[in-house]
Design brief:
The chain has a single domain, classed as Rossmann fold. Helices cover 28% and strands 22% of the residues. It contains 5 helices and 10 strands. The strands form 3 sheets. The chain has a 6-stranded parallel β-sheet, with helices on both faces. It has a two-stranded antiparallel sheet with strand order 3-4. A two-stranded antiparallel sheet has the order 9-10. Strand 3 and strand 4 form a beta hairpin. The longest helix has 14 residues. The N and C termini lie far apart (54 Å).
């Protein structure tokens, strides 16, 4: 039975690694997969899903204007596949998440989405909010804070390592820009702890 999955976490938790491993597992068993990633996140190169540990794969891309139902339907007709894997799913629009739900329901193809849950200010991304509402199954990809507790938040830093409190929701970056923290240490970085 096809389902819409949302695998979520903070930055640097290994979401792309998990995605690439799962796609590899399908291919190892003789099944084809279809990979998608956000067009404007080209840190690894245009149309690439890459992990910090050095593995990567080619992928088609999407942006906010993409009709993902049509794109997946047409690709399925041209080159049949067993599963769709989407990296950077936080950048999906609400309409695109509904399109993915239609792919699952109408075309009977499972879709595995991987992305961030919240931004550096602690707000849900639109794509993540829609996936939290519509996904059949959700799975957390865990990482840890420097204190050893589970990291659930992410802080954006400037070049000097100072936490930023304002800015655009989307700014592409990696370890040089973002640090995953537990809620307490995120609050500390955002100067949100009481003076005791």
């Amino acid at each position: 039975m096809a389902k819409l999955y949302f695998h979520y976490s903070t930055m640097n938790a290994g979401k792309s690694t998990v995605l690439l491993q799962a796609s590899h597992n399908y291919r190892e068993r003789g099944m084809h997969t279809y990979l998608l990633t956000a067009r404007f996140d080209n840190r690894a190169g245009a149309g690439k899903i890459a992990s910090r540990i050095g593995i990567e794969a080619d992928a088609d891309t999407f942006d906010e204007t993409s009709d993902l139902f049509a794109q997946i339907r047409d690709q399925l007709a041209a080159d049949p596949f067993t599963c769709v894997f989407i990296d950077e799913a936080q950048f999906l629009t609400q309409d695109q998440v509904w399109q993915l739900a239609r792919v699952v329901d109408d075309l009977k193809v499972p879709i595995m989405c991987y992305g961030l849950r919240v931004d550096f200010q602690g707000h849900l991304f639109p794509g993540s909010a829609a996936l939290l509402a519509l996904a059949d199954e959700m799975r957390e990809v865990r990482t840890i804070c420097h204190c050893g507790k589970k990291a659930t938040m992410v802080v954006r830093q400037d070049e000097q390592g100072n936490a930023l409190r304002e800015g655009a929701q989307v700014q592409i970056g990696g370890n040089e820009t973002y640090v995953s923290l537990c809620r307490y240490h995120w609050r500390e970085a955002m100067d949100d702890l009481p003076d005791c």
